[in-house]
Amino acid sequence: MSLATGLTVLLLAPDVYWPLRRIGVEFHAAQDGRAAADRAFALIGEPAAAAPRTRTVAARGAEIRLENLGVAGRDGRAPCDLTAVLEPGRVTVLTGRNGAGKSTTLQAIAGLTLPSSGRVTVAGVDVTDLEPGAWWRQLSWLPQRPVLVPGTVADNLALFGPLQDLESACAASVFDAVLDELPHGMDTVLGRGGVGLSLGQRQRLGLARALGSAAPVLLLDEPTAHLDARTEERVLRAVVARARAGATVVVVGHRDPVVAIGDRIVEVTAEAGMRRAAV
């Protein structure tokens, strides 16, 4: 899949593409805001052009470091001053209250959300300096709502590129059981957003894609949401297996079974005084 095609796919997924849209906030702002910006630029001169993002790294075997990471939100920074080392071969679980910035942390690691303070580095290189396409090809990301588009089940499984071992990926996510129930198996046609599958079945499809990817970095946001206890157990075993095979695995979760697989548990907090919802 070309980069252009991949970005088109991301446009269909608010959970995945929302951070990228922040880059265009000024362009899409209301006319009053645009006029105000024009007046400001007239006073201070043209803003400096952003430095080109051209650096590359090999993520396999590299440490990812969060150094006093903060991302500004509507009510303050979330996360706020987050420091952690994400090591290959280990599962790191990000936990914390709703609104603390756990999902935003994954977006910052992916380079889709720019930190307002601190930084994220891979092998010592700031993520904001990395060439986006080269970095994204080394990531396998499962957002809270898996990206599903109109087309067959097979189309959706291969949405971000062919899986090396489709059968093993479906078994690891217990999606093989779903395929057995579908009227036309892999050729079953899905509607927009995965219409034709239950929430749990959509989750398993997304998991098959994520676990079947050969990417060295896995970013999994609430991977066992909508799964029953038995399926959750099998999926978590597969997640741990990916880490033991050398991948850097970062999981957002607060349920006890998810937290239990963590080699390291990182508490994510928001800036003091932010309004937060209880988990």
Tag the structure with descriptive keywords:
five-stranded parallel beta sheet, alpha/beta, 2 domains, 279 residues, Rossmann fold
Describe this structure in words.
Helices cover 35% and strands 17% of the residues. It has 11 helices and 11 strands. The strands form 3 sheets. Strands 6-9-10-3-11 form a 5-stranded parallel β-sheet, sandwiched between helices. It has a 4-stranded antiparallel β-sheet with strand order 2-1-4-5, covered by helices on one side. Strands 7-8 form a two-stranded antiparallel sheet. The longest helix has 16 residues, at 229-244. It is globular.
Spatial separation of the terminal alpha carbons: 38 Å
Structural class: alpha/beta
Helix count, DSSP H or I runs of 4 or more residues: 11
Q: Approximately what portion of the residues adopt beta-strand conformation? A: 15-25%
- The fourth-level CATH homologous superfamily of the largest domain is P-loop containing nucleotide triphosphate hydrolases
Radius of gyration over all CA atoms, rounded: 19 Å
Helix content: 25-40%
- Low-confidence segments, given as residue ranges, are 7-37
The average pLDDT is 86
- H and E string: HHHEEEHEEHEEHHHEHEHEHE
CATH hierarchy, class of the largest domain: Alpha Beta
Shape: globular
Strand order of the largest sheet: 6-9-10-3-11
Count of structural domains: 2
Biggest sheet character:
5 strands, parallel
Q: Tally the beta strands.
A: 11
CATH topology of the largest domain: Rossmann fold
User: What's the CATH architecture name of the largest domain?
Assistant: 3-Layer(aba) Sandwich
